Amino acid sequence: MSKVDEFEELRPLLFSIAYRILGSVGEAEDAVHEAWLRYDASPTRPTSVKAFLSTTVTRIAIDVLRLARVRREEYVGPWLPEPLLADPYADPARAAELADSVSMAALLLLERLSPLERAVFVLREVFGFGFDEVADAVGRSEAACRQLAVRARRHMRDGRPRFEAERKERDELAARFFDALSEGDIAGLQELLAADVTMVGDGGGKTPQLARAVAGAAQVARLLAAVVPMMARIDVTFEPHEVNGQPGAVFRDQAGRVLNTLVLDIAEGRVQAIRSVLNPDKLGHLGPVADAWAVHHALKRARRPGD
């Protein structure tokens, strides 16, 4: 098998590792490309191509994450991971771990970990690498990696809700939510929301303040029921779509360009959080991006009496 073929076979795994460490599609793709360049330039064939490339992409991702953390401290407004509509890597033996680890909620919890803790957790807990492989990848002893894994597991466990929804229950609740959203049904929406639900938008300072955070079932339901039907008046549409392994939707302007993504965090029989990515810099991998300001101005015109 040629180097190119070996690399392409492993590309989905490498991207999935890098994305979980970085929370960014673009940065993950760049890390995978850099791993290929280093592999292609290597004068010798490694004993294990998978181990070599996994180690390489992990170390690149750790370095990128350390730099990214400085930028994220200066980020305007709430920061959310870049939305991922489909994880390219599949492993039936670890399907549950893979799906859980790519959710917005999990990626935000991973943000609380140090870069090393995050890398160790991703390699060990998500992808099932042995501690010897993890140690080689992050350049630490096995004992140190075991300690990092314990700390990371504790942080992740403490931040998760006690009762997460089964997939069927989750999808049925999401379908009811999007039906109520389409109809502007305040009561129907409020019934599905947790009392302390939060709605957060990531606009990065580049979109209108539709991205402000809102808390409480009544407030969130009223805002959604007011805004979404009004958006329909200017031909903004949404299509339910799995986002980061969770129920969500992609909103598009009248030309079909991506306006934002929305994802639901469902647990204990209610929607616990709604997260929307509006920052155009985080949507380009999904296709042509809408002009959020143009949509905002069209909404203002649609609200005027007599329009």
What report would you give on this structure?
By secondary structure, the chain is an alpha+beta fold. It has twelve helices and six strands. The chain has helices at 3-22, 25-41, 49-73, 95-101, 104-110, 115-126, 131-138, 142-159, 167-183, 186-192, 217-233, 292-303, and strands at 193-202, 214-215, 237-240, 248-252, 258-267, 270-277. A hairpin with a 7-residue loop joins strand 3 (237-240) and strand 4 (248-252). Helix 1 (3-22) packs antiparallel against helix 2, helix 9 packs antiparallel against helix 10 (186-192) and helix 10 packs across helix 11 (217-233). The longest helix has 25 residues, at 49-73. It is globular, with a radius of gyration of 21 Å. The mean pLDDT is 93.
